[in-house]
Design brief:
It is a single chain. The chain is mainly alpha-helical and 149 residues long. Helices cover 74% and strands 4% of the residues. It has four helices and two strands; from the N terminus they run E-E-H-H-H-H. Helix 1 runs antiparallel to helix 2, helix 1 packs antiparallel against helix 4 and helix 2 packs antiparallel against helix 3. The protein is elongated and about 70 Å long.
């Protein structure tokens, strides 16, 4: 699907460009969300090390929280581009935003040493990150396809 310009060069048509854009944004989002899932798993490992007596792991757990937050903010960019510029689905943006919001509550609970909230919420964030990572292959599809938009 391409059109010929006045100078004889082939120019991709709008639908092909939109599909290519969606695929690109979807791939960037996928890489970021896979990394978020791996970082969340690493957070659980570091928390376990801290609870086992390795107190240096707490500092790395704090760094890991910051790293995860940065990844989630970065994931919001391709998710927003995917939705509003690429005419893609809404769930990638909402999932990254929801995970980021939950991570902020998680960080606040951890900083306040509210382990009765921090640990279960951490498990929920890890589960959410892995659910998104499992579904992220469909992030680059157009908004009109499938059951959920």
């Amino acid at each position: 699907m391409s059109a010929e310009a006045a100078d004889g060069k082939t120019v991709p048509s709008a639908p092909a460009t939109g599909a290519r854009r969606r695929r690109l944004y979807g791939r960037v989002y996928a890489v970021l969300m896979y990394t978020v899932a791996a970082a969340c798993f690493g957070q659980a490992v570091l928390a376990g090390q801290f609870m086992s007596g390795s107190y240096d792991a707490l500092r790395w757990h704090q760094y890991g929280a910051t790293f995860t937050d940065v990844l989630l903010v970065c994931a919001l960019v391709p998710a927003a581009l995917l939705r509003w510029r690429g005419k893609g689905r809404m769930w990638p943006f909402l999932s990254a935003l929801g995970l980021f919001g939950a991570a902020q509550v998680l960080n606040s609970a951890g900083a306040a040493r509210l382990l009765s909230l921090h640990i279960p919420l951490g498990v929920a964030v890890i589960a959410g990150a892995f659910v998104v990572a499992l579904r992220v292959g469909r992030a680059g599809e157009p908004a009109g396809t499938g059951a959920s938009s």
